[in-house]
Design brief:
By secondary structure, the protein is an alpha+beta fold. The protein has one domain (4-87): Glutaredoxin (3-Layer(aba) Sandwich), CATH 3.40.30.10. Helices cover 40% and strands 22% of the residues. It has helices spanning 14-25, 39-47, 74-87, and strands spanning 4-9, 31-34, 55-59, 67-70. It has a four-stranded mixed sheet, sandwiched between helices. Strand 3 and strand 4 form a beta hairpin. Residues 84-88 have low confidence and may be disordered.
Amino acid sequence: MPRIVTLYTSPGCQPCRATKRWLDKNDVTYTVKDVTEDPADLAAVKELGYIAAPVVIVSTGDPETEIHWQGFHPDNLKKYTHSTKEAA
């Protein structure tokens, strides 16, 4: 099943830029949402318990199996996003 990657960011966020660079370098398709542009995006991040960007959510479409974390974590990116390229 394809994985959907969503990256919640904020302006001037160095870990956000590092995460984007990693995703781009590894040809991972993802959606970027700036939490300063849409209150609903900020609320979604807060609902998950996060207070800073970036927040990465990897989903197969089933909220019960979503994986998410805060910060730039290449180990998590490699582990949980690798199949997005293969699924395309």
